[in-house]
Amino acid sequence: MMDSLICEYKKCTGCAACFSICPKNCITMHADDEGFLRPKIDDSMCINCNRCKKVCPINKKSMEDNKFPTAFAVKHKNDSVREKSSSGGVFTAVSEIILKSSGVVIGAGFDENFMVKHKICNNVESLDELRRSKYVQSRIGTVLQDTKKYLDKGINVLFVGTPCQVDGLLSYLGKTYTNLYTIDFICHGVPSPMAWKKYMEFRRKSANAEITDISFRSKELGWKNYSMKIDFSNGNKYSSTVSEDMYLRSFIMDMDLRPSCYDCHFKTIHHLSDFTVADYWGADKQIPEWNDNKGISLVLAHSEKAINLLAECNSVDVLEVPFERAIEGNPSLTTSVKQPNLRKKFMREIQIKSFDKLHDKYCGNNILAKVRRKMPR
């Protein structure tokens, strides 16, 4: 059985709910030709229970609700935390509350090769591994099953992921847990792990050294002009802004996103998560007294549990803001990006060409103006 029989092929998000729920462990996640993980079913083991189809979020109706989320502007009181964070540091504040309750935080971090996977954090010291945006689709692995084990033991869990990953978790769990807190984010789309691997290969070769640290959102030039920053084993450093770095540019141009991202099932103001977070683009005009270019988080609270948890976070400044104004700078909340005409060629050639040559061909300086127009101000 192929994943197209679980849900429509191009709509599969790779959330791994089907893999996690299979009672016979006959579903495995395999990379397709573009590097995106998809479920593969061993027909010889399948008992046709259809649990994989039933758990798939794509096969369920989108959530309908007439109530708007409650919107907040949030910034951490500690500037060093904001400097380490993609935006205002709300993830750190909420995570610390969970960890202080002897809970765990589950989110995206790097493995030993700087590929992105979901990891489990149970102490403040290792929280930095999950901090900051990572513009690559994360490998879920067995994290949904691990989450359930923690919850069933009564341990508080904060799970952080894309809207499709959070929906996948909630569908897999199948019931409400009072000790589960979920954060998703306003998602532009998830780039291919293959594209990221090819980019890193180019950077290693250019530096003639191994990578020792990566930040997709360095604030050396400020929050609004963030940079890709890479440290190497020979002491060299690479830094380039969002409009100049070839990987970030291909991401903003939507060249290497998962097919489901171009018609995303989860583009709605009504999320199943407790929180939706994002950069508060436009806050410089709406809240000028906070305009220090160090980062401000937009937080949409979808539940009373979320509002109560945010109220416990004494380490942040919180300001309730009008919902409609708050989301003006984040059209990706409700609108999918359009698939570029050259996207299929880009992804086909990424298997055989180095990233720099591919970038020059499809994302070169002739389209730099287009990238800058899409950058948030």
Automatic annotation (TrEMBL):
Residues 3-32, 37-66 form the 4Fe-4S ferredoxin-type domain. This is Coenzyme F420 hydrogenase/dehydrogenase, beta subunit C-terminal domain. InterPro entries: 4Fe4S_Fe-S-bd, 4Fe4S_Fe_S_CS, FrhB_FdhB_C, Polyferredoxin-like_ET. GO terms for molecular function: iron-sulfur cluster binding; metal ion binding. Keywords: Iron, Iron-sulfur, Metal-binding. The keyword Translocase does not apply. It comes from Ruminococcus bicirculans (ex Wegman et al. 2014). SUPFAM superfamilies: 4Fe-4S ferredoxins.
